[in-house]
Design brief:
32% of the residues lie in helices and 21% in strands. The protein is of the alpha+beta class and 471 residues long. Strands 7, 10, 11, 12, 13, 14, 15, 16, 17 and 18 form a ten-stranded mixed β-sheet that branches. Strands 1, 2, 3, 4, 5 and 6 form a six-stranded mixed β-sheet that branches. The protein has a two-stranded antiparallel ribbon with strand order 8-9. Strand 1 and strand 2 form a beta hairpin. It is globular, with a radius of gyration of 23 Å.
């Protein structure tokens, strides 16, 4: 919609309020609401003032004034509010310079799109991200100076098979690592996911399928159709909003934490990506797995920079509880057709050149999609511009390789601290086209170290008492 069409739409739908949304540096959606009377056509130029000093990773208190410029093309009616509310994603503008704010993740994603076009390599990057999540019935957690715990429960969890606490137990729960993908009643959430899908469609998302995932305890996946870089990131933020709120209406809680359960699979965000130019797919060719040389070089860029990318695409301490061998997680940096144990997989579902793409498997849904999609694009571009050879494909099961064979396969970092160090050492490719800046990356790394990596490192872990209390 255009600004004029948004105003007409608001009048026709008797909209009472508008809700402007934006995303902080770690990737959490933020919002502010106004009566509809505050929205005029001029608002799409002049914007709405906010204080940016309290937003994580944003401005200091002495430079806190920011403007939100609503994007008319993102407008939809909020399906959850009691008051009829029109939601729009916004760009963040510096009110003094009238320039885009360099720490706005959406602007970073838009700069990645512009840099790709300016490079002459391609004019469009498509992304299709498969974000997995868990649906829980109860979650409790706390941490202070002398205690710390978490407790999760899901009626579907296999651990409830022996539960007889004064209630009927009907069984039918997925076994650990065997939730992919039984029919109801073992799959408890068919109807809930179906309502999530229908709500997403009403909000303008294009959904392809939904199903139970591998883990017990309510692990699920809903797949969106691919879209352009910025639009796919916008869609991922809306996807999370809808899933959380539909679940909340049912008395359930959804988490996109990569590894909330011990001993079962974690949640990934396998990200399909391809480059196009003048309406033609650039990854299709007659080389390995039907790829072009350009497609192979793109893979070379992803693999070369994967350890640095990890700080952005798997950006939490919990991410590295998922990235361990034995749980279908892509720990080792290799590529293959069909093989899901490789970090990069080339799907072979279709021989149509338009379907040719690469799937990068290390990302997880805790990442900021604007930063993650932009960073992956820049890594792939670096591979193309420098004709990086991805090496030989690895078509056997990586987890069955001998220790001697494994010596030649590089691996993802084992912790957030290691990932941040890798990003410090290898980030020149992110500075190309001024997509990311040194100042932004320094802010991101310092925030992650101080607020997350150090915060976890300084606190005793409950299992340390089991290991060491009697030492």
């Amino acid at each position: 919609m255009t600004p004029h069409e948004v105003l007409e739409f608001a009048t026709d739908r008797k909209i009472a309020q508008i809700d402007l949304r934006f995303t902080d540096l770690p990737g959490l959606s933020q919002h502010v609401s106004y009566p509809i009377s505050q929205l005029t056509e001029d608002s799409f130029e002049e914007g709405f003032g906010i204080d940016g000093s309290s937003i994580r990773g944003w401005a200091a208190i002495n430079e806190s004034d920011m403007l939100l410029i609503p994007d008319a093309a993102t407008a939809f009616v909020d399906p959850f509010g009691e008051i009829r509310t029109l939601v729009m994603t916004s760009d963040v503008i510096d009110p003094i310079t009238r320039q885009h704010y360099e720490r706005d993740p959406r602007w970073i994603a838009r700069r990645a799109e512009m840099h790709l076009k300016n490079s002459g390599i391609a004019d469009t990057a498509y992304f299709g991200a498969e974000a997995e999540f868990f649906i829980f019935d109860s979650v409790r957690f706390d941490q202070d100076q002398h205690s710390g715990f978490y407790y999760i429960d899901a009626e579907e969890g296999r651990w409830n098979s022996g539960n007889g606490k004064g209630q009927q137990n009907l069984g039918y729960r997925p076994r650990y690592k065997e939730g992919y993908f039984p029919v109801p009643p073992t799959d408890h959430y068919q109807d809930l996911r179906a309502e999530m899908v229908e709500t997403m469609i009403r909000c303008g998302l294009d959904i392809e399928c939904h199903h139970h995932e591998v883990a017990t305890g309510g692990q699920c996946e809903i797949d969106q159709r691919f879209n352009t870089l910025v639009k796919s990131a916008d869609n991922m933020m809306l996807y999370k909003y809808v899933i959380r709120n539909v679940a909340y209406q049912y008395g359930k809680s959804v988490t996109f934490m990569p590894k909330p359960l011990f001993g079962d699979n974690g949640s990934g965000m396998h990200t399909h990506q391809s480059l196009w130019k003048e309406g033609k797919p650039l990854f299709a060719g007659d080389m390995y797995a039907g790829l072009s040389q350009l497609g192979l070089c793109y893979i070379g860029g992803l693999l070369k920079h994967a350890r640095a990318l990890s700080a952005i695409i798997a950006p939490t301490t919990n991410s590295y509880k998922r990235l361990v061998p034995g749980y279908e997680a892509p720990v080792n940096l290799a590529y293959s057709r069909r093989n899901r144990s490789a970090a990069v997989r080339i799907p072979m579902y279709s021989a149509n050149p338009k379907a040719k793409r690469v799937e990068f498997r290390p990302p997880d849904p805790s990442c900021n999609p604007y930063l993650a999609f932009a960073a992956m694009t820049l890594a792939g571009m670096d591979g193309i511009l420098n004709r990086l050879d991805p090496g030989e494909p690895l078509d056997k099961d990586i987890y069955d390789l001998s220790p001697e064979e494994m010596k030649n396969v590089p691996s993802m970092p084992a912790s957030l601290e290691e990932a941040l160090a890798c990003l410090e050492d290898d980030h020149a490719f992110l500075l190309e086209g001024e997509v990311f800046t040194e100042e932004l990356l320094e802010t991101f790394i310092n925030y992650k170290r101080r607020s997350e990596a150090d915060a976890i490192r300084l606190r005793p872990h409950p299992y340390e008492f089991a290991l060491y209390y009697d030492i």
